[in-house]
Design a protein that fits this description.
globular, two-stranded antiparallel ribbon, 2 strands, single chain
Length: 129
């Protein structure tokens, strides 16, 4: 399978990326890391094992684009616009649903502290984690 820099990702390639991305250790590493080149090199190697020939930069770009598109659709749905959709929304929702979001909280002395909260959790789904 030939995949160059200008080539679009096929549905099979995206599914392979999502399958690697959905692994718990990958999700953990991607969440807490700003300098994540090493993680994407690992993801590219894993994709090669699955027959997908993409370099780490292509994997990182696709990851970022999918995440952006997911958040755009999620925001639209939360605003009441259910007409906006994307192909792998449900797969991405399963991966990103419990991703902690860093928030700043003001303390009494005027300083801010960072806390992590989880989006879209309910008592029934939290117990399954």
């Amino acid at each position: 399978m030939e995949s160059g820099a200008g080539k679009h990702w096929t549905e099979e390639e995206v599914k392979a990326l999502l399958s690697v991305w959905s692994e718990k250790n990958i999700r953990k590493q991607l969440h807490g890391t700003l300098r994540n080149k090493g993680i994407f090199i690992y993801i590219a190697k894993r994709l090669q094992e699955l027959g997908v020939c993409r370099d780490w930069k292509q994997c990182r770009a696709k990851y970022k684009n999918l995440k952006y598109e997911y958040r755009t659709v999620k925001y639209a749905h939360n605003s009441g616009d259910v007409t906006k959709t994307m192909k792998f929304f449900h797969d991405l929702d399963a991966i990103l649903r419990y991703e902690p979001v860093t928030q700043l909280e003001a303390e009494e002395n005027g300083r801010c502290t960072v806390t992590e909260t989880q989006l879209n959790t309910s008592p029934t789904t939290e117990s399954t984690q």
